Amino acid sequence: MAIIQKSKLKEMTATDMQTELSKVRSELRAEIAAKGSGQKPKNPGRYKQLRRMIARLITKLNQKGIRTE
Q: 49 Cβ partners below 8 Å, 6+ apart?
């Protein structure tokens, strides 16, 4: 899954953002599980990228007045 640029985020609808948020969260869970099991990550910076992407999505949803869990 590719990281979404900020300019593309502005064009997304709220439902698209929510589905993307759930995808990114599940990918982050997989990265955390792999890290916890002792596997060497393919891209060590991916964890940080995913966390930032989640923060961006939540921020945009909050700005639109949509609550996230």
A: 3
User: Angle at Cα 62 formed by Cα 13 and Cα 56, nearest 5°?
Assistant: 75
Domain 6-63's class? mainly alpha
Q: At a CB cut-off of 8 Å and minimum separation 6, what does 31 contact?
A: 41, 46, 47, 50
Q: What pLDDT, in 10s, does the model give residues 12-39?
A: 999 999 999 999 999 999 999 988 888 8
Closest Cα partner for 51 from 35, 67, 38, 65? Answer: 35
